[in-house]
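Q&A FORM
Asked by: J.P.
Topic: structure of Squalene monooxygenase

PROVIDED:
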Amino acid sequence: MACNLRRTISLWLVIFVVRDEGGRREARHREWWEKKMEETYPLGVITASILAFLFLVGIHGRWGKGRKAAGKRGSGAVAAGLGGADVIVVGAGVTGSALAYALGKLDKGKVNWNRNAQSGFMTLIVQDGRRVHVIERDLAEPDRIVGEILQPGGCLNLFELGLEDCVDEIDAQRVLGYVLYKNGRRAKLSICLEKYHVDVAARGFHHGRFIQRLREKAASLSSVQLKQGTVTSLIKEDGIVKGVVYKTKSGEESKAFAPLTIVCDGCFSNLRHTLCSSEVDVLSYFVGLLLENCQLPFPNHGHIILADPSVVLFYSISSTETRCLVDVPVQKVPSIANGEMENYLKTIVAPQVPTELHDAFVAAIDKGNIRTMPCKSMPADAHLTPGVLLMGDAFNMRHPITGGGMTVGLSDVIVLRNLLRPLHDLHDAAALCKYLESFYILRKPVASTMNMLADAFYKLFGASPDEARKEIGQAYFDCLSLGGGFSSDSTALIGGLNASPLHLVIHFLVAVTYGVGHLLLPIPSVRGLHRSARLIYAAAGIVLPLMKAEGVRQTFFPATFPAYYRAPPAQLKQ
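REPLIED BY: S.T.
REPLY: Here is the structure written out as tokens.
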């Protein structure tokens, strides 16, 4: 027993000694390794720095070769372009400024690996914003009486583009719905915004303040250059637009070159006639007044008076100012200079204005600051020209009665931005032109819905001698007065939140069906059948020409066009 105990103690002593010796050996090895690392640390830092430098030089070299190759594919004139711009934007209005920001903005975190087809090596490309040269005829704050309502769909587009703060700090007023007045009755409509996680309520503001905010946002990017000048013509070589000729503020003529020129110089565009064949129709005139310190009967609501002969609008554009727009038929525009306009507003329009607004309306007339603006309409029908694209009011207009112009313009900016996003090289004009056919198809849902709605609304409630149209307008108003789904659908369509042309047509047919039912019930009569037939005929006379102008196939069946599915050309992605 004692012998076994001694053997056990001896065994534990041996294990302890061995482990102690192993620990000392490990400690000595660790001290040697730390000393070695201290000696080689400066060499490691130098080696790592050299390798990182070579890696960056390699990326820059490959990038430079790609840029040089792209430059060789373009013409010499383009390579020598002013500022080396990738895109020229003509006009710095809502569409032009938003587009400049969208194309010039750095796409943070967007990193692409590009494989060289010959060597097989992968090149790291960090995609930054495009170099955008914006030429605007006047960079001073514009003063207009339209473009002062941005619908909820437009506010959603601002969030999509990162421009939502442009409605801040300009005393913009939220618009939560509309109130319609007709023959002593009224219908209050609210815009359903509960499902949106951001504040997309419509905004009323001074147009010029909003424009300046957009311009400031675009100019804040180092890749965007804003210049004041009047573009007089496009530079063409072999049928391809290479740039523009413009006069600077001092009157000196200059040129700018870029592989892509985008013309969005507004409703008074002087370049439109070279790029499209659409005819501009002047449907009526808006007469603008500014009411001061006037409290609307329903705060944060637009007020629409369906008067005779046409519509009167009231909406807040600041905390102390209310804009009033009186629609005047184009055939009967009274003269402002000889006092005819003042007399027309006081005797014809003022008696139909709600009593809460009457005194402020008359006071604004007496103040004398009466302004007019033509209400134009023009369907989108651009000729495909390599090197250039037409956008904004220069390309497509609708009656401003529903305030949808800016919503359409911002939607077009998003469509074009998404199409250009995967492209690295824009110098192959023919391939780019064919690819951008997709723009004219993809923009259709929003644009066609807003266009047809605005022009149909004006034909229903604007000046017209057609009694059947007036009956349709009355049926539409009666449907809105019922509330429920019809009124919520109306605000969604007007607000640009429902971009469905088919839904719009069905919505219109519901109002027509309601009107026919009203004429035929409770007991159909010969007179009721005759009036119903006239009403249906008048409804067809409104909606069918609008559908034809927009293009039935493009509007309702865009997926039947090959351009709807067109992928970016491979040569433009390299």
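FOLLOW-UP: The chain has 17 helices and 19 strands.
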